[in-house]
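Re: the request from the purification team.
They wanted to know what the chain is likely to look like in 3D before they choose a buffer screen. I agreed to run a prediction and write the result into the notebook, where they can find it.
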Amino acid sequence: MTTLDERPATARTQHAAASGSGARAERPAPTTMTMAGAINAGLRAAMERDPKTLLMGEDIGALGGVFRVTDGLHKDFGDDRVMDTPLAESGIVGTAIGMAMRGYRPVIEIQFDGFIFPAYDQITTQLAKMHYRSGGAIQLPVVIRVPFAGGIGAVEHHSESPEALFAHTAGLRIVSPATPQDAFDMIQQAIASPDPVMFFEPKARYWDKGEVDTTRVKAQLDTAAGASTGTAEMSRARVAREGSDVTVVSYGPTVRLALQAAQVAAGDGTDIEVIDLRSISPLDSDTVVKSARKTGRVVVVHEAPTSFGSGAELSSRVHEQAFFHLHAPVLRVGGFSTPYPGAVFEHDYLPSLDRVLDAVDKVMAH
């Protein structure tokens, strides 16, 4: 089993000579982490910040989770803060709801995406609606971590992309990081948020590495308005690459694919702008529409089936708000309308570089 190959290093403060005033402390250099390591570090920081933040899930304690994302946290925080649970997703979510009502901030892990459906009722009829049902008197700051999507050669029920099912339910925030930096920042922002957050982690990206500035989100959350500022930042889309010809919108596992497509297309003279949504609900359509008005062409990429998916909602908003700026219809590249296939066929099912570039060629030729 793969383990976290990197932990956040102790920050080394560099000192530079300042004329006439002695040495001046500079910002610590970014640390290279995997996405799994960044989430681990973010959970640790949130637990150190607030003693009422606790973790619950199947095998997350001494084992550290099947992907080792919680590795070391049980040893450092103990049984009262990092709790192994029975194999009962509905019970896990129901317990988290009760604990949130008593003032705790539970962070629960659903071991695999396809295991979330036994908890669907608790999530959509209780967790999502309690704040509204109580007239705003009850807040449920629960974070549900969901390793999701494919690309790891897993068996049935281990590679689902169910985000649209939850995005359809009002009262839930649905987010997905695409980089170690966002994973580190967004897990802490999600925990600080007063709202329930579904935190979809692209499992095929767990071992992707990137630089992480561990000071940025801390400065934000240490302020009096940090929770609301963090919630707003977490819900804002990111322009991952600027371009002028085509906008490619993606999130979570497909952002890297979109950036690869942009690199290849650049060799053919097509300048692609890549947008990382970060948040699926609420949807930052303003950032996408602004880009659509600039490029006039939009392609949406996600692993979930295109039928009734997040891309359909995004396509509708772009057509409604940027219709007279478009040179071509918005195209979607995603999974097919079939159950997720066995591992031997998953790369035929998932969006590929060729499929994304084909959609780019189509909107350019329209």
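For the purification team: The CA atoms of residues 104 and 264 lie 48 Å apart.
Please add any questions underneath this entry.
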